[in-house]
Amino acid sequence: MNMALNDLIALTFYLVVWIGYTQFARLRARSTHSLSNILRQLRVDWMTTLSRKEHQIADAALLGNVERTVTFFASSTVLVLAGVLTVLSAADNMVTVLHSLPFTADTSPEKVQFKLAGLALIFVFAFFKFTWAIRQFGFVSVLVGVAPQYRSTEFTDEQRDVFARQAAKVFDQAGHEYNNGLRAYYFALAFMCWFLHPIAFMVATTIVLGVLYRREFRSTVLRALLATKGLEPGPIKKEGAAE
């Protein structure tokens, strides 16, 4: 199968944007307020409060709700994969449908099969991320079960703080994996535009990039979350730094 130059450019652009944004968001969160770092702080606060509460029933229920949401996405990903593989066996029919659409680039069954295989790989990636997140949320459940008891005298305040930070770290890693799975869904939507035209593919990728950046660093919900800690969007101010 010979791919056209514009297809190669579009695919390269897509991969660079996805991988590049993933690394950018991770590094940017170290110096700029984002959903990632504010949720990390709030998870530490949650685990700190939990280690000083007499009962953790409500905490276990909240954690269970989160875990069920991730499980739903993991199950849905399997169904989507099944659908993609089904269409893969009927590439000729899909070519006919694509040729009937206006502004669609010329294609062939081989190219359609290649693109469907790429789409399937994206959802396989998402499935692995979601299932790993589920396991890690399970680890958090174990930590909630062994959290220091409120009336226990075996733990000092320092030990409770260490437990809270480490439990929050596991919680945070689970959240990151869940976020990576959701990000794969966003980029899968952009990938689907490749079936129409390479330019549509690049435009959709750019739109997804803008949506992800705005939600991570400029959204209204970020402002609300930061406000709970007396913070505002923008660079993270180091303690003791001059105003």
UniProtKB/TrEMBL annotation:
The cross-references to Pfam families, in alphabetical order and at most eight, read:
DUF599 (PF04654)
Q: Which UniProt keywords apply?
A: Membrane, Transmembrane, Transmembrane helix
Query: Which positions, given as ranges, span the membrane?
Result: 72-91, 112-134, 185-213
Question: Which protein is depicted?
Answer: Membrane protein
